[in-house]
Automatic annotation (TrEMBL):
Classification via SUPFAM superfamilies: TPR-like
Name of the protein in question: AH receptor-interacting protein
Function: May play a positive role in AHR-mediated (aromatic hydrocarbon receptor) signaling, possibly by influencing its receptivity for ligand and/or its nuclear targeting.
Keyword Nucleotide-binding on entry: no
Organism superkingdom: Eukaryota
Biological source species: Aptenodytes patagonicus (King penguin)
Length: 217
């Protein structure tokens, strides 16, 4: 930037400082000439395959797009493309959140939209669990449980996230809540608890070796 330059449009910049700050643009202003643009085609999409960004959609288009985006996210997840699936779930959530902002919190329409957001958010959390982004899972699952205290999937995913970051008591409490709400999940919960206990034993053994080396010096 030129000395004393401030943010403004190019014409105002040129008027005040007799320069746009770039010699080639200054030359173009002095000697205007036709510009030729080379455009490279990167890919050709099939008719009807293009999806608008959520911000560019009408409210009706957002509602129609959500089931399709959700389906695409599920297919990507089944293919093992977890990051791409998370992005799809995020787009679907963004569409619904945008609509929800226009409703009064707690109203029937707001609640209906929130109930559509919840399964998408749980799918998103599942992706984040696999990406080892545990604190994001904790935040989102807690936000769900603040509104829906009986959501088993939110307790289970939050329990796995707590276990991953060594919040042992919190993980055990969440898994206990899962069993209280759905006893049929005992085999799955027992497996998670056994895994947590095994990791704790490994960690204790590693800590003993580490601290033994420290105190022996």
């Amino acid at each position: 930037p030129l000395e004393g330059q401030r943010h403004c449009c190019s014409i105002a910049q040129l008027h005040e400082h007799y320069s746009l700050g770039y010699p080639d643009l200054d030359e173009l202003q002095k000697n205007p000439q036709p510009l030729i643009f080379d455009i490279e085609v990167l890919k050709v999409e099939a008719p009807g395959s293009y999806q608008q960004d959520p911000w560019a959609m009408t409210d009706e288009e957002k509602l129609q797009a959500v089931p399709l985006i959700h389906k695409e996210g599920n297919e990507l997840y089944r293919q093992g493309k977890v990051q791409e699936a998370a992005a799809k779930y995020y787009d679907a959530i963004a569409c619904l959140k945008n609509l929800q902002m226009k409703e009064q919190p707690g109203s029937p329409d707001w609640i209906e939209l929130d109930q559509k957001i919840t399964p998408l958010l749980l799918n998103y959390c599942q992706c984040k669990l696999q990406c080892e982004e545990y604190y994001e899972v904790l935040d989102h699952c807690s936000s769900i449980l603040n509104k829906y205290e009986d959501n088993v999937k939110a307790y289970f995913k939050r329990g796995k996230a707590h276990a991953a970051v060594w919040n042992v008591a919190e993980a055990q409490a969440d898994f206990a809540k899962v069993l209280a709400l759905d006893p049929s999940l005992r085999p799955i919960v027992s497996k998670e608890l056994r895994s947590l206990e095994a990791r704790l034993r490994e960690k204790d053994a590693e800590d003993k070796i580490r601290f033994k080396g420290i105190f022996s010096q």
